[in-house]
Amino acid sequence: MITFFNEDISFNLKYKVKTKSWLKKVAELEGFRMGNLNYIFCSDNYLHQINVEYLDHDTLTDIITFDNSEEEETIEGDIFVSVERVEDNAKDLNVRFDDEILRVLAHGLLHLCGYDDHTDEEEAEMRVIESKYIQLFRTDFAK
């Protein structure tokens, strides 16, 4: 089950039902079944505090993913998303906010599927996979 929450902001994700179906399909295509996955939309300040407290990183970020799975092939987790960071990233990258939020949602899920982005090579691979799944959303779910 995929659930969307707001923590310290008001944010309404467009196409919630279609987005949930798309995320389930992404997990399936990656060889996983969907357990409980929570996306928590929040502010920069809220996510920064999590970054400092849990990861000892004193930086702003767009997403932090916590893997709560107990079974290897089941997705279970909490994904915190700074809507402010996503908005800024969309402007900086000159992309639509809707595309950038999809990229970030997929990014968190891909982390739970075992992908990392610590090196330039891993990050490049992650971007290719994110783009593939954004295209899947556009062609199969955005209708």
From TrEMBL:
It is an enzyme of class 3 (hydrolase). Its cofactor is Zn(2+). This is Endoribonuclease YbeY. Binds 1 zinc ion. Its EC number is 3.1.-.-. NCBIfam families: rRNA maturation RNase YbeY (TIGR00043). Keywords: Cytoplasm, Endonuclease, Hydrolase, Metal-binding, Nuclease, Ribosome biogenesis, rRNA processing, Zinc. It comes from the Bacteria. Its main location: cytoplasm. Single strand-specific metallo-endoribonuclease involved in late-stage 70S ribosome quality control and in maturation of the 3' terminus of the 16S rRNA. It is found in: Cytoplasm. Belongs to the endoribonuclease YbeY family. It comes from Flectobacillus rivi. The keyword Methyltransferase does not apply. PANTHER family: ENDORIBONUCLEASE YBEY, CHLOROPLASTIC.
